[in-house]
Amino acid sequence: MATVGKNILDNLTTGMYSDSKVIYREYIQNACDQIDLAIKSGILSADEGYVDIYTDGKKRYISIRDNATGVKAEDFIEDVGDIANSNKEIGKNKGFRGIGRLCGLAYCKTLKFKTSYLGESTRSIMTCDAQKMRAMLIENKKYTLDEIWDTIITYSTEDEDKQEHYFEVEMFDINKENTDLLNDTKVREYLSFVAPVPYKNTFILRNQIYNHANSIGYHIDEYCVRVNGSQIFKEYTTKLKEQSGSALKNYDEISRLEFKDFRDYSGNLIAWMWIGLSRFEKQIPSINHMRGLRLRSANIQLGNDAILQPLFKENRGNFYFVGEVFAVSRNLIPNSQRDYFNENETRVLFEDLLREYFYDVLHKLYYEANRVKNDYKRQEEYLSKVAEYQKKEQNQGFINEEERQKLQFDIDKAKKSAEDARKRLDKFDTNDDSSPLSEVRKNIGRKYDSERLKQQAESTKVNVDDSDKKNTFVTSSMSKLSRSERKLVGKILSIITDIAPKDIAEQIITKIKEEMRQ
Predict the structure, then answer these.
(1) How far apart are CA 176 and CA 489, in angstroms?
(2) Rounded-to-integer distance, Cα 50 and Cα 67, Å
């Protein structure tokens, strides 16, 4: 028989994952499979299963424990000790390769598995000398997989209460370079989007997701996962935030969810998704940890928040959205790193369907949102220019006739632009109110108070009678100055207006007016 060398173990442990926090995903995944089995076999009721994670930074210790079936004593060595020899089914169980439990070997000195099966008075224990394994892997010597495994593994048993049923993973002396595994905040943040947990009850739109899933006959797997006693939830919210100085402020809001089902040529459901509809003000800042479309298999996230980015027409499109894509087809098989699917015909079809939807619908949503916002801004700009003109006219604020004519020209130009924008907005008002694009437009309209803008724009008029404008200039109030002096002051004010920022120029001109009146 061919020899299996030590490098295979290196590939399955230290070389498998780029983020140490995946150990939580792998062990939770295994626990959830056993919770499903415990419910099916009657050991647990539907809401009794849990996964408890405990971390101790001082002791550099981690425990991950479930209350599922446990493993029978007679099956323990085969089920837990074998490598890549799982009894689980592809497409049915969340884990199926039999390698996920090895991931902890890369991040601690000692890895221990403890389990007890309901009705048995024995606790089975497998202890792995992870530090010794890593030393043998880098040693300049050939070892077979069996040689390393026999060296680092020991089995033992202890007495246990017959009523106990659990499986526990313990990691002792976490590596210093993997301290993030002990950071409660980072672990909770990671699991809140990766783990198969419920939506937070403050996410008021969550029932829309459950209702759609029920309507297509899909069950969203959800489990009670706790970190140091505090339950983990998907941290979705309707509020989108941005940094404002040292504080966070809301800049946009998700008003509704939109759903899309993806089916193969025979009408079979292969995936479905939900997205949040907002005003799409801008790319969602990274301070919003929920941003980006998440890809989920058995409600466990694959990859990161940018996994679906290549399917967008442009990369930036992904981060305009909040949402999830749920894989349904058993042929969408997660790869060994669980950062995407294995390549096959179903994956190709999945990508084609998503790419078409992302191009035809999602890309248009944020592009159209930007155009609508600009149309409202054109109306605001017109009203702002009219207000500026009227203020100068009423308060003797024109520098000279040239400035007055320029402002009038700008008003005429802005008015035409605003009228064209209004026609585009009015034209859409007759379209389908239930479409996602209509929802986005309505959200933007509410922000800009569209009816108020429309009425103001229609009722606003500017008197352009040129017959007597001599009293509308700044220098008109400087009666103590001679005509030539006022003309000189006018030139100075014109220069200030040309070279200084608008707000600074206005301050200077106001101060000059005050001084000249004294």
Answers:
(1) 72
(2) 6
pLDDT value at residue 457: 62
Q: Which two tokens stand for residue 203?
A: 């996410």
Residue position matching structure tokens 């505090």: 230
Q: Which residue has the tokens 């499986």?
A: 167
From its phi and psi, is residue 190 left (phi > 0), alpha (psi between -120 and 50) or beta? alpha
Token pair 């919770």 is at which residue? 35
269-304 residue pLDDT tens: 999 999 999 999 999 999 999 999 999 999 999 999
Half-sphere exposure of 49 (CA within 13 A, CB side): 27
Which residue shows structure tokens 């108020």?
452
Q: What is the average pLDDT score of the chain? A: 86
Torsion angle (degrees, nearest 10) of CA 421, 422, 426, 429? 70
The answer to whether 148 and 10 are in contact (CB under 8 A) is no
Instruction: Pick the closest to residue 55 from 136, 132, 170, 152 (CA basis).
Output: 170
Question: What span, in angstroms and rounded, lies between the C-alpha atoms of 289 and 103?
Answer: 26
pLDDT digits (tens, 9 = 90+) for 352-365: 999 999 999 999 99
| Angstrom distance (rounded) from CA 186 to CA 400 | 62
